[in-house]
Amino acid sequence: KEKEQEALLSGEHDGCSCFIEVQAGAGGTESMDWASMVLNMYKMWAYRHGLVVSVVDEMPGEIAGIKRGTIKVDGKHAFGYAKSEVGVHRLVRISPFDSGKRRHTSFAAVAVIPILGDASVHVQINESDLRIERFRAGGAGGQHVNTTESAVRITHIPTGITATCQNESWKCPQACAICNLRLEVFVL
Description:
Belongs to the prokaryotic/mitochondrial release factor family. The chain is of the alpha+beta class. It has two domains: 2-115, 2-Layer Sandwich (Alpha-Beta Plaits), CATH 3.30.70.1660; 127-187, Double Stranded RNA Binding Domain (2-Layer Sandwich). 28% of the residues lie in helices and 34% in strands. The strands form two sheets. It has a five-stranded antiparallel beta sheet with strand order 2-3-1-5-4, with helices on both faces. A three-stranded antiparallel beta sheet has the order 6-7-8. The mean pLDDT is 77.
């Protein structure tokens, strides 16, 4: 069994921590609810395997679920275990959001990105190439998120790539967003 596991986790970046990003597909509230379920499943999976999970970004849906969400999973072989989850996940069920109780098909796209370490993922980004916008975060958080600009959106003008951070666990959302932007530009 150990040899089998060793063979499965022998990829170049399999020992790394990773980001797991889930994005709701077409289908409105139903797909957003499914995306939320998928993200929560990955959180629970990581906790059960002794990995450390932190929410990097989460954009809530209007009625239920999330439009997209990103978690950071820290621990040995996090990327190796999660890399096979990349792709589109489908759910067919009787929708709790449909008064006609019809069957709906929902989709959620999953991306898994290894965290290669500061030396490997260092991407030089000129400050003049960035457009930085501060805004009020959405979702849970009480009056604080409604009254302070606790979220940041950074756009890399040459590529059009956008990164946001609005989670209260990050002391500096701008640093978080720049880190995410570097990662996206590196992957590109």
